[in-house]
Design goal:
Biased composition (Low complexity): 453-472
Region (Disordered): 250-273, 445-472
CATH architecture of the largest domain: 2-Layer Sandwich
Number of strands: 7
Order of helices and strands: EHHEEHEEEEHHH
Oligomer: single chain
Largest sheet: 7 strands, antiparallel
Number of domains: 2
InterPro entries: DUF2505 (IPR019639)
Pfam families: DUF2505 (PF10698)
Distance between the termini: 81 Å
CATH class of the largest domain: Alpha Beta
Length: 472
């Protein structure tokens, strides 16, 4: 009757993290490495979130004796596992189911089971495992079932620890990759720029200083020009008015004499009025241009102030760049120091590993003669056992021949006995007939009536002596 088991174990990771390991083929390979075995993927199909996977799990130790491996077709001890589960759902309703096919006696050994996960917290979950094992081998079913049940309980009990170990290995690998990337970047920076960082820093400082000086000189020139323009704004306006008044006076003086003469002679109006109106229009236009010039000057001042602000920001950025450069230098020094320490640590670890490997190699060399002797001894014992087996086979064949010969002799003896018995019966029959004839002759001589005497069965003559009388 099939045996069943159910067990649950707490795993120190979330249910999502544990179930995600089912999709990671690296986890299957890691489990195989933990048991010193092998892993091979035969099929991996995902349809609508349902996963169907077939794998072959091989084991380093083969419990089948070497002489029977070729006979049973089990040179390599392996199990073919067929599993089905949902990609993201892991509760009992969506549990994983699997079957395991042994390498021998597939029709007599059946292994199946189920697995699901129950969340406990963000850092813990419970892994539930069931298994049903049936062995239909006469006389060995119960013992084989017990052995397989124990192995299943042991492997399912080790699964959470293996998963935790694999997750830790993944995290350590990611950290190591990040550290290695940072180290490579640091080495690249050291190789390309650290050797000339002083020169680069000096060049940056020179460029910043030159740019600052150019901006400062340009702003100073603009300020001087605007200051000079501010100081001359009033003089320019008054000068414009003075020049306009002077031009007007000159025009008036030029026109007074002809106009006066013309007016005295003809009595007409003077020609000064149109010229005066034109000059007044020009003065009003010039006066209107003054506010616009003042506005443009104010805008220019605002632009100068903005330039000053940009210069201040540029100076602040330069200071920030200087600080960043100093920080970069310190970081480079720290990285160089860390790289030196890491190199020293790696060198020390490598030395220790080499020493340990050398010690192990020495131990192996010392143990090699013993192992060779043990192997030779085991090989001799195996050859002796094979020789004994051959002798036993020969003895069995000789015994079969003896049995066959004995059976033939027995048949011949039985046939001879039958022949002798038939001959004896024939002789007895002949003797009885002769004795009956003699008996009848004796009776006729003695004058006795025919027939057998009293106490003698009919047809059996009595014993007759030499004299012909009836014996006692």
């Amino acid at each position: 009757m099939p045996r069943s088991m159910k067990a649950s174990y707490v795993c120190k990771m979330s249910a999502e993290e544990f179930w995600a390991l089912r999709m990671d083929l690296g986890f299957d390979q890691f489990q195989a490495d933990e048991r010193n075995g092998g892993f091979k993927l035969l099929e991996n199909v995902i349809v609508d979130g349902r996963v169907s996977r077939t794998t072959v799990l091989t084991f380093k130790e083969n419990p089948i004796p070497p002489r029977f491996r070729s006979y049973l077709g089990a040179d390599e001890f392996s199990f073919k596992v067929r599993a089905k589960w949902h990609e993201t759902k892991y509760d009992e309703k969506n549990r994983m189911s699997y079957t395991s096919e042994p390498p021998v006696m597939k029709d007599k050994i059946t292994v199946s089971g189920e697995q699901w996960v129950e969340p406990i917290s963000d850092m813990q979950c419970r892994v539930v495992q069931t298994a049903t094992i049936g062995v239909a081998i006469f006389g060995l079913g119960s013992s084989v079932e017990d052995s397989l049940i124990k192995q299943t309980e042991q492997s399912s009990g080790q699964l959470p620890q293996v998963a935790e170990k694999y997750l830790a290995v993944l995290k350590a690998r990611k950290e190591a990759e990040a550290a290695l990337a940072a180290e490579l970047l640091a080495e690249d920076a050291v190789a390309t720029g650290a050797a000339s960082e002083e020169v680069v820093g000096a060049q940056i400082k020179q460029m910043l200083a030159a740019e600052q000086n150019d901006q400062i000189e340009a702003i100073r020139r603009e300020e001087a020009a605007f200051d000079a323009e501010d100081e001359g704004d009033g003089d320019a306006a008054s000068d414009l008015e003075r020049r306009m008044s002077q031009a007007l006076a000159e025009d008036i003086e030029e026109d007074e004499e002809p106009n006066a003469a013309a007016g005295a002679g003809a009595g007409g109006p003077p020609k000064l009025a149109p010229r005066l109106d034109e000059l007044r229009k020009f003065a009003r236009a010039a006066a209107a241009e003054v506010p616009r010039c003042v506005a443009r000057r104010a805008e220019a001042k605002q632009a100068v102030a903005a330039s000053k602000m940009e210069l201040t920001r540029a100076l602040a950025a330069a200071e920030t760049a200087k600080l960043s450069l100093d920080i970069l230098k310190k970081l480079h020094r720290t990285e160089e120091k860390a790289a030196a320490e890491s190199t020293s640590t790696i060198r020390q670890s490598t030395t220790e590993a080499l020493q340990a490997a050398a010690q192990k190699a020495a131990s192996c060399l010392l143990a090699l003669p013993l192992a060779r002797d043990s192997f030779i001894k085991a090989q001799a014992e195996e050859e002796a056992a094979v020789a004994r087996l051959a002798q036993a086979i020969d003895a069995s064949a000789a015994a079969d021949e003896v049995v066959a010969a004995s059976s033939s002799a027995e048949d011949e003896l039985f046939a001879r006995i039958l022949r002798e018995k038939a001959e004896a019966e024939r002789q007895v029959s002949t003797s009885l007939s002769e004795r009956w004839v003699v008996w009848e002759a004796v009776k006729s001589k003695a004058g006795l009536p025919p027939g057998s005497p009293k106490g003698v069965p009919k047809g059996v003559p009595p014993k007759v002596g030499v004299s012909g009388k009836q014996g006692g």
